Amino acid sequence: IVLMGLIWYKAGGGLLNELGSIFSGRGEHPGGPVAAFVAVVGTMVAYFAAVVINYGDFSRFVKNESQMKWGNFLGLPVSLAFFSFLALFITAGTAVLFGEVVTNPADMVAKVDNLALTIIAALTFFAATVGINLVANFIPAAFGLANLAPARISARTGGIITAVIAFFIGGLWVSLISNIGIAGFVDTLGAVLAPLYGIVVADYYLVRKQKLDLQDLFSAEPGSTYYFDNGWNKRALFAFSVASVFSVMSVWTPALAALSGFSWLFGALLGAVLHLVLMRRARVLPVPESA
User: What's the pLDDT tens digit per position in 38-70?
Assistant: First the structure.
């Protein structure tokens, strides 16, 4: 907020003019400004797909459904809109002050060449990096490892394992992103997770009719409601595999380049439809009334 205020003060009236040029639709997207906007929205949805899939790691701590809804509303759409507003003004201001659009915060700091600002920016970048990685990467992975073997792995142990693995992966992160680009990486990640999201939603609302046997959810006994084939739902795995291949192809296949921003949407829809069709041929055990 302070940075936006400073840039607005320095840029003066030129900031609003630059904002107008941003919204004028200038760009190189083949589908025009509307298609470009929708594609960006698709990429943003793909970005939050990882958080959505791991939403249960955080919603388990709320006291009631109202808290969950308000936390979700304030934490996702409201905060996203607010920070997008800040980013838009700051980016427009860089075009006025530096004569070019600067979208990388580190490049903005470098152009100012001020030691105090550099230190503040470094601390801010550190806090932001830690915050997003805790929510999107560390906590879900720690809980996931603990759920694999709860008798042997606690959430704390899962966190240590995650940290060790992340230490080695982190060394390859910069080179990976520099080669494939952040947009390609996010779209690919969303393309893989999208079918899983579609399958979960279709299974809960359309196959199970919002009725779950909570006891059997945690049971590995043969014949239990969710045991399927030796503990695996092969129909869901097939739907996930087919939908994932298609959605990832839409990101990396040149002939489907126009669909890259919509990979998450296509993957989720395809995964949901395939799962619904395949599960209609399966025998779904009824949920006891007491469940």
Answer: 777 777 776 776 677 677 778 888 888 888 888
Q: What average pLDDT does the segment 124-133 reach? A: 83
Distance CA(15)–CA(4), nearest Å, equals 11
Could you tell me how far CA 63 lies from the centroid of its own chain?
25
With residue 253 as reference, give the H or E element that holds it: none
Structure tokens at 13: 């009236």
Residue type, 290: S
**pTM of the full predicted structure?**
0.68
- Cβ contacts of 144 within 8 Å, gap of 6 or more: 54, 158
DSSP H/E element including 265 = helix 263-279
Element (H, E) at 19: helix 14-22
Cα–Cα distance for residue pair 56/101, rounded to 1 Å? 39
Tokens 């694999």 appear where? 148
Rounded to 10 degrees, the C-alpha dihedral 80/86/92/95 comes to: -110
Q: Which residues contact 93 (CB under 8 A, 6 or more apart)?
A: 4, 7, 8, 10, 11, 15, 18
Tell me the β-bridge partners of 229: 232
Which residue in the block uniquely carries the two structure tokens 């579609």? 198
Residues 6+ apart with CB under 8 A from 250: 191, 256, 259, 260, 262, 263, 266
Backbone angles phi, psi at 227, to 5 degrees: -80, -35
* Main-chain phi, psi angles of 230, to 5 degrees: 55, 35
Give per-residue pLDDT as tens, 85-102.
888 888 888 888 888 878
